[in-house]
Write a structure and sequence with these properties.
Elements lengths: L1 E4 L2 E4 L2 H90 L11 H8 L3 H10 L12 E3 L2 E4 L6 E4 L2 E4 L5 E3 L4 E9 L4 E9 L2 E11 L6 E2 L4 E5 L9 E8 L2 E3 L2 H4 L8 H5 L5 H18 L1
Antiparallel strand pairs: 1-2, 3-6, 4-5, 6-13, 7-12, 8-9, 8-11, 9-10, 10-12, 10-13, 13-14
């Protein structure tokens, strides 16, 4: 096609124009097909990946179900074992109570030691003495020791404002001071006591002895814990019927409260002092029991 005007003459070839647009269209179509193929490949990969993770998830759920069943079996087995242990503990407790009854009649029994008993106690070996110090409450239950704020006996109660009998020792101490057990034993109670003790821990040491630790700010043990002498069981506080931070400490023997002072001063250097001061305990029977236990232990070894 030739076009003539005032500026001159121009010639156009439709064949070249068609080829040009066909080339552009072909390139565009090629890119579209390539993009479509890529999208199809990506989607196919995603589908495979989804299928893989779905199978993995199903296997994981199956394993979780299996582990759950095994866990439930273990719980059931543990419950049965605990029930058996509780029954054993009950039997042991009954036996210990029977032994404690045989050890003496009452704490108020103030019979002097006979010469034979004094001689038997004096003949105790170093190992027997150390074992007795380990299982019978002895020493100071707060670290560091800063003295006493109230002793065992009659006193004017700071809260009730009347004269009553004080059945323990009150130790001076700041809030947070560690409280430690005075003999090996099992935690019988650990919680809040509404009778005035506040946060209270009771440790049963066997042989008729229990120790009470009252007015704690923090309790770091729980019922059933086996504690060794010197183990931290809490911190000094002022909970319950109290006017300030201190530790109220009691020692019970066969259900009766005894003066803890002789026990806090008892150690290997003044070993016989406790036997002479605390006459309400049947020391001879207790020592014999310790000896029999030691002999039985050595025979097993």
């Amino acid at each position: 096609v030739t076009i003539t005007d005032l500026k001159g003459m121009k010639c156009y070839s439709f064949d070249k124009i068609i080829k040009k647009y066909l080339l552009i269209l072909g390139i565009a179509l090629l890119f579209s097909i390539s993009a479509l193929v890529i999208v199809v490949l990506v989607l196919n990969h995603k589908v495979k990946e989804y299928s893989y993770y779905r199978i993995q998830n199903e296997e994981l759920v199956k394993k979780i179900d299996e582990n759950k069943k095994e866990y439930l079996k273990q719980i059931e087995k543990t419950k049965k074992e605990l029930s058996a242990r509780e029954l054993e503990l009950e039997n042991i407790t009954v036996k210990v109570q029977e032994i404690e009854k045989l050890m003496g009649e009452d704490v108020d029994y103030k019979k002097e030691l006979t010469e034979t008993e004094k001689l038997d106690l004096a003949k105790m070996s170093v190992l027997e003495r150390k074992l007795l110090l380990q299982v019978i409450p002895s020493g100071i239950p707060v670290v560091p020791f800063k003295g006493y704020s109230s002793l065992f006996g009659t006193r004017e109660h700071p809260v009730l404002e009347k004269t009553i009998y004080h059945y323990g020792l009150d130790f001076k101490a700041t809030k947070g001071t560690p409280i430690i057990t005075q003999a090996d034993g099992v935690v019988e109670f650990a919680g809040y006591n509404s009778g005035g003790f506040g946060n209270l821990v009771i440790v049963d040491h066997g042989y008729g002895f229990k120790t009470y630790y009252a007015h704690m700010s923090v309790i770091t043990t729980k019922v059933g814990d086996i504690v060794r002498k010197g183990k931290k069981i809490g911190e000094v506080g002022s909970t319950g019927r109290s006017t300030g931070p201190h530790l109220h400490y009691e020692i019970h023997y066969l259900g009766k409260r005894v003066d803890p002072m002789s026990f806090t001063e008892w150690n290997i250097d003044n070993y016989n002092s406790l036997f002479e001061k605390e006459k309400g305990v049947k020391w001879q029977s207790l020592v014999e029991m310790i000896r029999h236990q030691m002999q039985a232990f050595q025979e097993k070894k």
